[in-house]
Amino acid sequence: MTSPFAQFANATLTFSVPTGVLEQDANGNMVPSTTSVVVTAMFTVTRSPFGTTRARVVEFPGKDVEQIFLQGYAVNPTLLPDSINSDVPCSASWDGREGAFYLEFQNRDPFGAYKSTGDELNGWFVPTTIARNA
Fold it and tell me: Shortest CA distance to 92 belongs to which of 12, 33, 30?
């Protein structure tokens, strides 16, 4: 299915999801094996449930860190796999900026509109920052 928002896609999210298989790491510990799921999305800056578009977080000397609340739709795939969990950071690229995206919640319309529009995505984008005087 093609999303009606495909022409407005402005973000790429790369989620690391478990495969269900355990493997041994370099220290001999059993860890879950993961695979990458790449999702193309369309986002706009909007007000968060807290009433703000931006939230300041802890600042370090020479760094300016902020979070931007984004709302939009999954474009490809239009329906996210169930293995993608909320509040797990993923690497993201949005409007030419690199950073991390924290999927806050995933809305599925009880009337089934998500089948034609794609899953609605809401969350916080944290841009990768660089030192101001570097």
Answer: 12
């939009």: which residue's tokens?
72
Helix (H) or strand (E) holding 35: strand 30-45
Q: In three state form, how does the secondary structure of 82-123 look? A: CCCCCCCEEEEEECCEEEEEEEEEEECCCCCCHHHHCCEEEE
Structure tokens at 71: 């709302």
Q: Is the pLDDT of residue 62 over 70?
A: no
Tokens, residue 58: 């802890």
pLDDT of residue 51: 58
CA distances from residue 18 to 60, 87, 99 in whole angstroms, order as listed? 33, 15, 21
